[in-house]
TrEMBL record:
Domain LysM span(s) in chain numbering: 13-58, 72-117
SUPFAM superfamilies hit by this protein: LysM domain
InterPro entries assigned: LysM (IPR018392), LysM_dom_sf (IPR036779)
Gene3D superfamilies recorded: LysM domain
Pfam family, one: LysM
Protein name per the record: LysM domain-containing protein
PROSITE patterns linked: LYSM (PS51782)
Superkingdom field: Bacteria
CDD domains: LysM
């Protein structure tokens, strides 16, 4: 019964459900669909019933290292914001968002999420 024992299939990552999460919001956040999440989480009997602390598997929308030309893959770290990432790589938040259409809310990025960072920024 322990969620920690649930193995995630290749092409997916573990995610700990946070307070206020729904499968719809999680799917939006990671650029996938509720159906795709349910397909690799047979332990979710009711898609409307997930709870904080529950471990689920999330399909990886873009495999690490697969980014458009002139971008580089970056794994979001704890404490990162798009603003700080943009500063670190000498680019802009708008440029990062343009390279990552799966990011629907610039204020919501998560540790472990792989995003593409434009190369040759303004710095």
């Amino acid at each position: 019964m322990s969620d920690a024992s649930i193995p995630c299939p290749p092409g997916s990552q573990r995610y700990t459900v946070q307070p206020g999460d729904t499968l719809f919001f999680i799917a939006q956040r990671f650029g996938t669909t509720v159906d795709a999440i349910l397909a690799i989480n047979p332990q979710i009997a009711n898609p409307n019933l997930i709870f904080p602390g529950q471990i689920i598997c999330i399909p990886i929308a873009r495999p690490p290292g697969v980014c458009p030309p002139n971008t580089v893959a970056y794994t979001v770290q704890p404490g990162d914001t798009l603003f700080f990432i943009a500063q670190r790589f000498g680019t802009t938040v708008d440029a990062i968002l343009a390279a990552n259409p799966q990011i629907t809310n610039p204020s919501l990025i998560f540790p472990g999420q792989v995003i593409c960072i434009p190369r040759g920024g303004t710095a």
